[in-house]
Amino acid sequence: MCGIVGYLGTQRAAPLLLEGLGRLEHRGYDSAGVAVLAGTGIRVAKRAGRVRDLADGLPRRFAGKVGIGHTRWATHGPANDVNAHPHTDAKGLVAVVHNGIIDNAAALRDELADTGVDLASDTDTEVLAHLVAASEAETLEAKVAEALGRVEGTYGVAVLHVDFPDRLVVARNGSPLIIGVGDKEMHVASDLAALVRYTTTVAHLDDGEMATLTPTGFTTYRIGAGGIAATDRRAAPVDIDPEAYDAGEHASYMHKEIAEQPAAAERVLRGRLDERFGTSHLGGLNLDARELRAIRRVKILGCGSAYYVGQMGAMLVEELARVPADAEAASEFRYRNPIIEPDTLYVAVSQSGETVDTLLAVQEIRRKGGRVIGLVNVVGSAIAREVDGGIYLHAGPEVAVASTKALTNMFLGFAMLALQLGRVRDLSIADGRRLIAGLEALPRQIEEVLAGEERLEALARKLADAPSLFFVGRVRGFPVAREGAQKFKEISYRHAEAYQTSELKHGPLALISPDVPTVAIVPGDELVERNVGALHEIAARGGPLVVVTHEDVAMRGLECDRVVVPRSERELDPILLTVPLQLLAYHAALHLGHDIDKPRNLAKSVTVE
Ligand code: F6R
Description:
By secondary structure, the protein is α/β, with parallel strands linked by helices. It has 3 domains: 3-241, Aminohydrolase, N-terminal nucleophile (Ntn) domain (Glutamine Phosphoribosylpyrophosphate, subunit 1, domain 1), CATH 3.60.20; 247-450, Rossmann fold, CATH 3.40.50.10490; 452-595, Glucose-6-phosphate isomerase like protein, domain 1 (Rossmann fold, 3-Layer(aba) Sandwich), CATH 3.40.50. The protein is 34% helix and 23% strand. The chain has 18 helices and 27 strands. The strands form 5 sheets. It has an 8-stranded antiparallel beta sheet, with helices on one face. Strands 5-6-7-8-12-13-14 form a 7-stranded antiparallel beta sheet. A 5-stranded parallel beta sheet has the order 19-18-20-21-22, sandwiched between helices. Strand 25 (518-522), helix 17 and strand 26 (545-549) form a beta-alpha-beta unit. The chain starts with a strand and ends in an 18-residue tail after the last helix. Fructose -6-phosphate binds at residues 303-306, 350-352, 355, 358, 402-403, 486-487, 490, 605-606.
């Protein structure tokens, strides 16, 4: 959450900062601002609203070759011009942008107020600007380290100071910061997305590290109790195609990312399936066959959509490996003093690798001696670095707030994990090969689902006008329904509730009416008869139905709109049933005229608890 950029070099900073902020806007988009060193002072422009509003309102002469910028997701105080970053001290000597949460901000604000400091904003960040300005240390690095020494919480920060016009000082603790090395210029950002147009030679700061950037290079330090000590961090090239960060011909990133799923699915499977032994190879797990056999339980932790796909993953593990497995919201796990068992494999699942609830759950498990692996998309992210091993998802950058291709690859990651756990137990080689064939067919089958977009668009228009709707499914279909409802409400702002089809008659059937449509997940599996029966109960109460199903499922005269997906192996069906729900949500939101990639109140990468 929140995006940070910084620049020093030979060019005007402001246009580069604004371009970078535009690329980080998915991380927070309620306000934005920039500060540049101009002559002997700092100029700040900031306002509530989008980066384009900031750019439109920027004074023509906003010169300066050193600057910082920020796009905000409000935590302390409403989204208004004053609370927007950068924040300065009273004399305007220091400007700070910050991503994270300062837990002791209230105490620090009181302390500053007692010394006569007038705080202009409601934010936690502003205290940092005052603390840096008040420091009597000689260097900017020492001033920043002293200020950060007073702070409890998480931060990625970038600091400008009028007395040190040749440099930017940045620091990281819990919120990512990446330095980009250009030609006689340096960049810094909280995400590669803002750097790749300028450079692919980068250095990731570690927690507890700070860096000084000058136009010709950077130096890193570790912040410790006794001050700062130099570290030897070097920049290295990253293998990334800058175009992966553009929406290209697509009207939105979400549409692009939905369309990329067949290719992304191929990438996560590539080189990991072993037809000969009917198993998968997941070298990154750092677990040999004996250790895999010793696992007695699997516990999956994630948030939001990652939690729902974790439920699909738990079912895969139980079905293929016959090992008890369940998924839990990582945001809740830590607070019930969980029992950590030595023979449980804990699995943290996260696209960004930054979600703080999931990260804290991982830290809690490790603190108690548990073994955690990660299913993570962003290479080198905080969760990826914290776990004992894992599976990278190779979905490529996911920019839209609503997760699609990363989620599909999470499912495939779980399928491969379950296959490997199964094959060191009782899953037969024939079943292993059956699943491999099923996995290999999925990219093409996802393409088939995507080819049905026009029909899904028509159905989405109908659903979009309903103020409230149900998504229902059973067993394998229930997490699919949960994910479908999540995607729908997230971007269409319609109330969408997921239920087990079997539970409708125990209460929510009372809500069914011609105004409340139901999207039902009905694969042609062992539950099909019961599922179709329940749909008749909905139809009998006048509830409109969209049924996501397989070609050969007989609806027994049910009045409904059918969405047919190709059959996979039954264990793998959930992902093909999920993909059309992405397009339903997408087209409903488009029809309603919403900002697809930046839904209200949300942000990509939730780095606050
Ligand atoms: C939904 C969505 C969120 C994320 C959740 C976890 O479309 O994107 O629910 O799934 O915030 O994010 P990651 O996977 O980055 O940990």
